[in-house]
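User: Some background: our group keeps a shared notebook of sequences we're curious about, and every so often someone picks one and asks for a predicted structure to add to the entry. Today it's my turn. The entry only has the sequence so far, pasted here. Could you supply the structure so I can complete it?
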Amino acid sequence: MLFNLLYPLADQFAFFNIFRYLTFRTGGAVITALVVSFVIGPPLIRLLRKRQAEGQPIRDDGPESHLLTKRGTPTMGGFLILAALIVSTLLWADLSNGFIWVALLVTVSYGAIGFLDDFRKVVYRDSKGIPGKAKLLLQVAIALSAALWINELTPPELRYMMAVPFFKDVLINLGVAYTLMGILVIVGASNAVNLTDGLDGLAIVPVMIATGVFALIAYLAGNKIFSNYLQIHYIPGAGELAVFCGALVGAGLGFLWFNAPPARVFMGDTGSLSLGGALGAMSVITKHELVLAIVGGLFVLETVSVIVQVVSFKLTGRRVFRMAPLHHHFEKKGWAEPTIVIRFWIIASILALAGLSTLKLR
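Assistant: Of course. Here's the predicted structure to add to the notebook entry:
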């Protein structure tokens, strides 16, 4: 909004020329989201505690320690992330950019699905939330709308094309199947982050790390000079997503202040589904869908652990892990929660560096 209102006045007031710089507006988005989080965080948490006397329902089949350490902690903290993200993005982004609206559509819509899930858990004291099929159907419908919209905003020569990391000239024309892949990426990323969100601070930091990587990818892909130099595909307008990413990082930092062990609030599905959806949408927009699997490798690992556990139990009656997702396996082995969380953060950082290497190794 500030860009749309003030930058046109740069001819009369030279100072307003600063709003044309993505780096300035991205920094402004980070700080604004952080401030909004600090301002609305305490009253929001008090409200959630008041409305959720017993806090988030704890799985009976989960780690025994959670029945003692997690009971009574309110959920739906994703509202804090979404509020800070939306305010900051609307304030600092170019609102004429279609990619910004696609990212917001997916993030807010998936947050609404998560809210319905959290609401059912809290009101009916049911840790399973809304039925899985209904949740998946809603996710697919939103992802389909987003994928079609992204296709329309993408340059014709790149439309329906999938780029391959490490290869500068390889583009695979998937045709209509590209839309299906976009749906798979957005829905898959959303649910992968949701599965990872199980310990205090475990999901939000890897999300911020991945978001920081995609802020750089979006900035480079949206800049013709840098994209040509790095031999990545130029996506006009994609650079504006750096502002969205900045807002998301700032909102994540603000949420982590309250989610740090021992957590005062959980993000719930309101946060995890929306954050994963945002990562998926950004990867599709920037043509770095496969890079997301590297940068977000921790989320992939958590998801694969669940799939392996379910398949193994159904086929052989045996479990590969003591409990899935993977972080619960290490809890069952006796690892302290902070140990698991910090080591997973380290893994996420290493994978982010591996993902960044794809920008140059071509």
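Suggested note for the entry: The radius of gyration is 20 Å. Residues 2-357 form one domain.
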